[in-house]
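Task card 7
Instruction: Convert sequence to structure tokens.
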Amino acid sequence: MQIRGITKRKIRVFLIWSVMLSCISVYADNGIAEQKNIMQENSKDDSFSDGEILSLQNDDKVEGEGYLTSREAVAAYIEAIKSCNIEKIISTFAVESYVDYFDFDSLIETNEKYMPYIMFLPQRDELARKINIENRRSNIITEIANSYKNYALSSDHNYDNSFSYLLTDFGTAENMMDKIFANDVEKLYSSILFTGEFVDQEYEEYENFEHLGADEISTEVAVIEMGGQRKLLYMHTVRYGDKWYMLNTAVPE
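Output:
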């Protein structure tokens, strides 16, 4: 696997946590109903070996068709963000490809342990595969939500996963939300201007990501204008075969 590199220490840390988060189980409200549907669709006894590449029909795929270059994937992601279309945004990411090429054995050997409640399921049947796909989708949604929160919060309330706001500081819940979430995110997103400019950053190699099963991983730093301000978007892209996809994103600067 060829790896171009990674920008900044915090981006390296972000990728490590992102890989772990992508293995967290889905706890969405509709999760039980979704799993029941999956079980009904897969009532026949189909089994697969670990590491075997499984595939859905194109009509069922979450990810799109992929892109010819890393930067084309980034441009598609930015355009999708501008459209405020959640499914379009998700389709720019590797989802089925991420799951199908994920080297489960390599991950276990690297970590020398298996944590059932926070790691992917071993992909031995189609049900496990679909659960892994939903886990991957959930992680992408988390990244999108984090970016949304970062833009939505007023300048007096910077986004921090570990920080809590106290109701006593605001009086009412309505006043709290109005004060904290002061920005119109859809308006900001629709104002995005992207001319195709990218910034070169110093890279440092990282190791022990063979379990992604990717042919290449690249870091891209795109320059956009949004709400009249210049922003840097830090993103990782991934190549499987001749197709590039978004891998993950970091909170922009």
